[in-house]
TrEMBL record:
Key words, A-Z: ATP-binding, Kinase, Membrane, Nucleotide-binding, Serine/threonine-protein kinase, Transferase, Transmembrane, Transmembrane helix
Name the UniProt record assigns to this protein: non-specific serine/threonine protein kinase
Top-tier EC class: transferase
Reaction equations catalysed: L-threonyl-[protein] + ATP = O-phospho-L-threonyl-[protein] + ADP + H(+); L-seryl-[protein] + ATP = O-phospho-L-seryl-[protein] + ADP + H(+)
GO molecular-function term, one example from the UniProt record: protein serine/threonine kinase activity
UniProt-listed Enzyme Commission number(s): 2.7.11.1
Membrane spanning residue stretches: 332-351, 357-377
Length: 470
């Protein structure tokens, strides 16, 4: 911890200390005057001698490095970084533009009670800053969004300060490991495990909005299954409450996928279904098959009569379970053909092997035969599970307990296609192809043509709506 400077003390022959603005685990911040320009600045100081671990200095230097790259009107402008050596110590300093105003924590302590409209405007302003931070390359995660770090200026504008916990997500992903920093009550579960992503800041913002609405720390509000139960403590519109519910979801995949999506949903109620609609959508197969209810933003395709495919779909995920076809359908024909094909290859290869290298000519035919056998077995005995979420997707094949799974990002998916890769008895075997970048993942060869076309319509419709919202 840096030594406390006295009011009137001059640092580096340039900055005259006025008073202490704040004191935390990574230094002390002072209000000061730049003697060269006459501007008021914020001077953040860190003492090497008083640090209890080197990680503190790493965070301090990272803060300076990140601040130097930022340019947003709601983020105090970075001015300088320097160090001063003493006989038995070294002090480090970050100089920033001083933001006039009071933190939201101070505003609440002084009796301020904003209306729902006031608080929603604060949320929109902070989301605008987070859009800027998260869409940088690489993204920047603040990791300590809280009322104390949001300054309400005299003109009503909000400024985001204190980047001492900031994280460069590229660095964390490539090198691994993360310091657990943040403030209890505003930290989502993944942050306690040392993991921080852009959605981490969304949770913290949601918790901050709860504080503004209730005047209480989110940690003091009741919880149900690790989720803050706030509805009995606030008096706000259903839309704002539904939006807040999604911001503070404990599971990161259940939150908004981006600050931009969160802002869009906040400003337009149509982009966020009510809690009743979400419950209805999550009562998946019964509602889809029995009542036909579906969020209004999605088109409705009729499930083919007699199909055993289970499809669960709402505005935030699509889940499909394809059961084995069993001993009927084109899978059986393909299996019989594969057995005959490979049986003949065994006989032909055994004869050809007597002629030496001539047997090598059978290799391409073996590859085709093995491929047909695998497709046939997966059709007759295999199950397929496809899940496309707001951020990621997974496709899993299960053949008699032997599983194979691929995963990726939803943003990499291209429209599904129906393709033929080979023929059986002069008839093309059509398969659904889930295209991920340059890769193509095949499934559904044992389904009827009408089932394949139905699934292709449903999946492509979901992806089209997903892209329109991101």
């Amino acid at each position: 911890m840096a030594e406390l400077h006295q009011a009137g003390e001059i640092v580096q022959d340039r900055y005259r200390i006025s008073h202490v603005l704040g004191q935390g685990g990574i230094g002390i911040t002072y209000a000061a005057e730049d003697l060269q320009t006459g501007d008021r600045v914020a001077l953040k100081a860190l003492s090497l001698r008083r640090m209890n671990e080197w990680k503190v200095l790493e965070l301090f230097e990272r803060e300076a490095k990140v601040l130097a790259q930022l340019d947003h009107p709601a983020i105090p402008r970075y001015l300088d970084y320097f160090q001063i050596d003493h006989q038995r110590d070294r002090d480090f300093y970050i100089v920033q533009q001083l933001v006039e105003g009071r933190s939201l924590a101070q505003e609440i302590a002084n009796g301020w009670h904003g209306s729902e409209s006031d608080i929603q405007q604060i949320a929109e302003q902070v989301l605008d800053v987070l859009i800027y931070l998260h869409e940088l390359k690489p993204p920047v995660v603040h990791r300590d969004i809280k009322p104390q770090n949001l300054i309400r200026q005299p003109n009503g504008k909000i400024a985001l300060v204190d980047f001492g916990a900031v994280q460069d997500t590229y660095r964390n992903t490539q090198i691994g490991g993360s310091t657990i920093v943040g403030t209890y009550g505003y930290m989502p579960p993944e942050q306690f495990r040392g993991k921080s992503l852009p959605a981490t800041d969304l949770y913290a913002l949601g918790a901050t909005i709860l504080f503004l609405l209730t005047g209480r720390s989110p940690a003091d509000l009741p919880e149900v299954r690790f989720k803050i139960n706030f509805r009995d403590s606030v008096d706000i519109s259903p839309h704002f409450a539904d939006w807040l519910e999604k911001m503070i979801e404990p599971a990161i995949e259940d939150r908004f996928s981006s600050a931009r999506q969160a802002l869009r949903a906040l400003q337009n109620p149509k982009n966020l279904p009510s809690i009743e609609q979400r419950i209805k959508a999550l009562d998946i197969q019964h509602l889809l098959n029995q009542t036909g209810d579906r969020p209004v933003s999605q088109r409705r395709y009729e499930k083919p009569l007699g199909s055993r495919i289970e499809l669960k779909k709402n505005d935030y995920f699509l889940e499909i379970d394809i059961p084995p076809t069993g001993w009927h359908g084109e899978g059986v024909s393909l299996l019989i053909f594969a057995i005959c094909w490979n049986g003949f290859l065994v006989f032909w290869t055994s004869l050809a092997s007597r002629a030496g290298f001539f047997a090598l000519f059978s290799i391409p035919f073996w590859l085709v035969g093995i491929g047909m056998a695998y497709t046939a077995l997966s059709t007759v005995f295999g199950k397929v599970h496809l899940l496309i979420g707001d951020r990621n997707f997974s496709l899993e094949w299960d053949i008699l307990g032997a599983k194979r799974r691929i995963q990726g990002k939803t943003q990499d998916l291209r429209p599904l296609e129906l393709k033929s890769f080979y023929e059986v008895n002069n008839q093309p075997v059509m398969q659904l192809c889930l295209n991920q970048g340059i890769y193509s993942h095949k499934f559904g060869s044992g389904l009827s043509r009408v089932e394949k076309e139905w699934l292709m319509q449903e999946i492509n419709d979901f992806l089209e709506i997903w892209r329109s919202q991101h």
